[in-house]
Task: structure prediction
Amino acid sequence: MKTVKDVSEITGISIRTLRYYDEIGLLKPTKLTNSGYRLYDTRALERLQEIMFFRELEIPLIDIKKIMENPNYDKEQVLLAQKKLLERKRNRLNGIIELITDVMKGVNTMSFEAFSNDDIQKLLDHTLTVMPEETLKKQIEQYGSEEKYREYLATGFANEQATADLIKWYGSKEKAMEAILQSTGNTEGLKSEQDENEKIYKQFMTAKMENNDQLAKEAVVKLAENYKKIFHLDNARNILLDLAKEYSSHEKLAEATDKQYGTGCSEYIANAIKLYYGI
Result:
């Protein structure tokens, strides 16, 4: 048996709080001594631990009491649900910590300045310069002239949503321009990163078949690192969350991914990404 003082020291919960739990009938002591001191056995401590888990999820005491007094209360199922919810809360906090880390590094994560016409022309000049000669030739033939092909490329920057997403991924217009201007047109490097992506997607499918959450989490980390390389990103959180959104909202993209890697792959990856970032 543990005294109220012992329980307070073990759990970090104040004596006053333990007394209040007794008053509202949430956690009654196992017995009272002749002098009126509260004593708690192992079963009472286990119940207190469950209460603490509920409190971590910010569930009101009155609701905790109702849940635990329900005749259909299943301790194992409740613990499993609490574990999943707390993992999601932890992951959400990890995502926030990542963003704070970026801000401390000087990365502007809340800039919405649009590209000017001069910015766009500079990016187009670079894109056409590094584009393989054969590819450029085919595009010019398709659009009729280099100028018309430039106009087509420029329409991408006229799309407000696409531009907003681009700036969101990089944190600022300047960072986005810097990343685009770093591109070299080297298809060999891209091939290596595409091969890595394929390995990661296969790992997702292995995790799905084995119902292995840890393996899926590791795959998300690898995917984030690979996207950083491909797109010259400081943080891949926003682009991965947009990828998850695309898989959930665009049926053709999901179908193409499932066809290549296996049924349910796109949905599984979307859920794994959202779970990792606590969304």
